[in-house]
Every structure is written in C-alpha cells, then in structure tokens.
Amino acid sequence: VTAALLSGREVAARLRARASEVLAECAAAGITVRLAIVVATADESAAWYVRSLRAATARLGIECEVTELSPSAMATEVSTVLEELSANALVHGIALQTPLPAGLSLAQTASAIDPAKDVDGSSALSLGRLLAGLPAFAPATAQAVLELLDFHGVGVSGRRAVVVGRSVVVGKPVAQLLLARDATVTVCHSRTPELAAVTREADVLVVAAGRPGLITADHVRPGAVVIDVGTNTTDDGSLTGDVDAASVGAVAGGLSPVPGGVGLVTTAQLLLNTVTAASRARLLAS
Length: 286
Ligand code: NAP
What we know:
The structure is a single chain. This protein is α/β, with parallel strands linked by helices. 41% of the residues lie in helices and 15% in strands. It has helices at 9-28, 44-60, 75-87, 106-109, 124-132, 140-151, 171-180, 195-199, 245-248, 262-285, and strands at 4-5, 34-39, 63-68, 93-96, 160-164, 184-188, 204-207, 225-228, 232-233, 239-240, 254-255. Helix 2 (44-60) links the parallel strand 2 (34-39) and strand 3. Helix 6 (140-151) crosses helix 10 (262-285). The longest helix is centred in the last third of the chain and has 24 residues, at 262-285. The protein starts with a strand and ends with a helix. The protein binds NADP nicotinamide-adenine-dinucleotide phosphate (NAP). The site of NADP nicotinamide-adenine-dinucleotide phosphate has 28 residues, from helix 10.
C-alpha cells in the first residue's frame, strides 16, 4: 500500500473542539442544545449511524432525541413530526435519516423542517441556497468530504474531480461544494458507461454509491486522491466502503479509510452544525 491514509480522526476531533466551544457559550447562556433525529427506516447502516450519533452527542453534552417511525410511514406522518419538532423551541437541530419510506422524496419531506434547524441541509430550500452560493447548512456528509480534503492539504481548485453517486444526500451536494471550490466536476451514476474510463480522469475521486468494492485499482489514476463515502454493512456486522482498499491503496496517492474516514467527520460536522444553529437562535432571541 502506497496511498497516504486520509484519516478522519483528527479532523473530527477539531470539529468537536469547535463545537465544544460554542456549546460552552450556549451553556453559559442557560441553553441546553438539543438534536432531534427522525428515523423511518429499518436500514442497518442508518441504524449504525444513529447509534454513533447518539454516542457522540452524549460525549459532547448535546441532548439527543430519536423519533422512530415505521419504515412504511406516510408522508404526512413524517411531515407532522418534523413540523412539531420545528415548532419546539427546545429543539435546535433536526436530522431526517435516509432512506425514507418508499415513494417519499427527501428534499420534499425535509421541507417541513424549519430552515434554521435544518442542520443536515436536507430541505429543498437548503439545497437550493447551496446551489445559489448563499449561506446554508450543507448536508453533513458532503461538508465532511471537503473538511477531510482541507485538513489533509488536498487542494481542488483547477483540478479534475469525479463524484460517483448523485443522491441529494451526498453525490449532488459534494459535486456542488467541489464546484464552488473551482474544481472541474464530473458526476457519475449507475447509467454511466465505462465508469473506469471516467474515474481515471480524476485528480480527486469521491465515491458514494453504496456498492462495496465498486472502485478497484483500474478505476484510479496513479497518485489520485480517493475519498470513500460508502458505508456498507457486511454479514459479520462490520463496515466496508465502496472502494477496494487493498488494490486502490497500491495506486492512489491518498485514500480515506472505512471506518475511520468520512463517517467520523460527518458525525462531528452534524454536532458542529447543531450547536451553530443553537447559537444563532440564541443571538436572534437576545
Ligand atoms: P443512494 O441514494 O443509493 O445513491 C447511490 C448513488 O450511486 C446513485 O446515484 C446511483 O446511481 C449510484 N450508483 C449505484 N451503483 C452504481 C454503479 N455501479 N456505478 C455508478 N454509480 C452507481 O446512496 P447515498 O445515500 O448517496 O449513499 C451512498 C453511500 O454512502 C452508501 O454506502 C451510504 O451508506 C453512504 N453514506 C455514508 C455517509 C457517511 O457519513 N459516511 C453518509 C451518507 C451516506 P443512480 O442515481 O443512477 O441510481
């Protein structure tokens, strides 16, 4: 393996340290910061993420409440919960987990979240503001990719970036953030012919497909930086990415591990967004 390990550990620690500072200011003002998570899926990797968020909020000192809905919940049921949480002054951040019940669109359902509490940047308004270059919370995972690149000194301006995956949670917002940093961005998806020929163009390759082992050495130009967003649960309950780390590690210049890469940073970013939302609410109220 020749690739530098682009670990998320220290990046996440820095984001948590910043979150701690803001949290202390909120505590001094008598505010208990609270994150509400809404889950309507039986998906195992979503459950894994929610468990890690619960643990991370507890460690930092943020209250966390999880509302579990049925994986077959109707759109109105999910929206009603989101509207109630939005109206609750004790809740500062709301994160709606994916996947959603069949037929529900994330951006549309999340539009029931008060934009000021949309700490995972899920609503159509937040996504639209991101596209327009206006201030908004970006989806935490997408932001985490940029934080990881920044921390490890990987510049993207003027470089070729390829994103595999076009979901509104990861692929599209990552592409948008890279574009905003002056990368030349190509987005691939399941209908992209000759995927390897396209991904080999990348100086920076971001993979968010949810397909274990999709990206092998053949897909990577020697020396390219590869960020693996995939979190797939294996039969033994462990996590694996979308990148075949053994073969890609021998050609890439840098590779983020799974676990220990983007996922760690995502959790820390969501905590930081939540305390930021609480702090803004406090300033607005004063
Ligand atoms: P998703 O909604 O299922 O989207 C997957 C995307 O990958 C789609 O755009 C799909 O194309 C594309 N794709 C699937 N198979 C492909 C193939 N063989 N070749 C090229 N493109 C392909 O998934 P998601 O929510 O974006 O999540 C992606 C992965 O990231 C999952 O493993 C998820 O668990 C992980 N994730 C990690 C974090 C974290 O914090 N680390 C957070 C969120 C998600 P089509 O659009 O054509 O179907």
